[in-house]
Amino acid sequence: QGMDAPDIFRALSQELAHAHMDKGEYNRADCAFDAYCVSYVLCKRNGIAVDTFRFDRLPDSLKEMDAQGIRGELGHIRDVANEVSADMNRVLEAQQRNQKSRDDGAR
To answer: How confident is the model at residue 22 (pLDDT cuts 50, 70, 90)?
Structure first.
């Protein structure tokens, strides 16, 4: 309550990322940076300001990775962002179809 739409989108996109990454044995703290990155990607794709995101402190696990490991992490972030985007699009399309049906029925 009291949040503007971009702040709500940023918060919900991060929570959706966590939900998509939870495949059973899940540690929220271990996945926090990935969820944060997914939120950044989703905000960027949807025209939400990303100036509040900060990447000046990376997790130690990422600092110790080689190039192939980093590419794998980035691929995982991209895949989760794509899954969340696809889910969002399905929900929005269904709502648009329902609204069109209601509008057509009211005529």
So the answer is: very high
